[in-house]
Amino acid sequence: MIFYGWRIVAGAFLVLFTAYGAQYSFGVFFAALIDEFGWSRAGLAGVFSLYAAAYSVFAFPAGRLTDRWGPRAVITAGGLFLGVALAAMAAVTQLWQPYVLYGLVAAIGMGTAYVPCSGTVVKWFARRRGLAVGLAGSGGSVGTFALPPLAQWLVGAVGWRAAYVVFGAAVLVTLATVARVMRRDPESMGLHPDGAPAPPSAVVPGVPLGIALRAPALWLLGLALTATWIPVFVPLVHLVSLARDLGHGPAAGAWLVSALGAGAVAGRLTMGPISDRLGRKPALVFGTAAQAVAFIAYAYVAGIEALVATTVAFGYSYGAVSTLFPAAVADLFGRSAAGAIVGFLFMSAGSMAAWGPVAAGAIYDAYGSYAPAFELSAACNLIAAVVVAMTRMPAR
Description:
It is a single chain. By secondary structure, the protein is mostly helical. It is globular, with a radius of gyration of 20 Å. The protein is built from 17 helices and no strands. α1 runs parallel beside α7 (about 130-160).
């Protein structure tokens, strides 16, 4: 009989596929909204920045509620918020409206995706934790690959307003359906991680958030995650516009977002199991350093081939880092409060990540180029690599 934990992985894959695929289609709608309303890039990028900060903050209570109630109720409620907000974006006419609908309401829903899914998956596995988190997290990357071209096609076929309605309805139905599969931890079903039998009274090992907050390793992990995530949304928001500035059409920009997703799938699927064998620390150092190299390349590429290669490399490093951090948390602090601890780190780092896209937009508006923004992004990731190298973690 197949271990139920793999059903949890499959459910998390579908939740992240849907939620992150819709999120990373923002660049497609970004270009359409600018064309229709003439808003500045910095002004509209601020919507995504508010959204990134808000959903990171909402992820913290979502993680704590997942530890307490389980992921089913949390993800179902999140699907309602996210789906309704996306559908309501079809009615916007003024810039403040996306700030409310996307920046706040959609953010509440999105806060119930990454942390509840990753915090649940790490509870179901120990020996194969990196592989399981990588498989689940690859759902977000596959969604990044698959949904932006669909968004581009819908916008061209029926207009951006109708496309938003379709995306909203699909998100609501999918998340509410998939959430029924999710369970809090293996002990709730009389199992141990990886499928070993367990008595019904088994206690989930780990330390609470309050004790974890006293550990230097938690704060070093948080600093590294913040440094690498400050610029992580810059390509996701501005990639379509960058491609257009370099003389490539909007369809090419949408396919670049898909290339990013393909690279992230590879990063999650390879670096997760590699970290199970070699340890999270060397894998995280590699991922953050590789992301710095990709940002340097973004500052100087021009041709479409080089732009695609750079985007795949960025996606690979981004996917690796996003997979390894929750696994590292469970390695260090156990499983019982994994949702709360991952949520705390996600809140701290993600709220700072909100500044990346708006800063890049402001830099572009001031200098007519994204190059300075990409160079600063590379510097942030080099800092992250150094901090991870200083963090004490289990060897395996």
